[in-house]
Amino acid sequence: MTDEQSDQDRVESRAHLLPEEAAVGSDDPEAQAEAILAESDIRATDQNAAPDTVLERRTSDQTVVAVEPPD
């Protein structure tokens, strides 16, 4: 499968409207899917691409201060 086929498969899969999208309709579900997937790909590649979004990748031991229970 080529990248172009893979991209088309993704678009066709995403072009099926979600219930919320179907409620308001879409003039062009495939164009909408292409735009959504393009933005998603940009955000996945550049984690600073989404405005006002901070994505932190830490493990739980980096986020929680261990507290010893009282005796």
Provide an overview of this structure.
By secondary structure, the protein is mainly α. It has one domain. The protein has helices at residues 3-14, 19-24, 29-45, 60-63.
Radius of gyration: 20 Å
Instruction: Provide a count of the helices.
Output: 4
In terms of DSSP E residues, the strand content is under 5%
Report low-confidence residues grouped into runs of 5 or more: none
C-alpha end-to-end distance: 62 Å
Number of strands: 0
Average pLDDT, rounded to a whole number, is 80
- Topology as H/E string? HHHH
Helix content: 40-55%
How many structural units, i.e. domains? 1
Mass-distribution shape: elongated
Largest sheet: none
Sheet/helix structural class:
mainly alpha
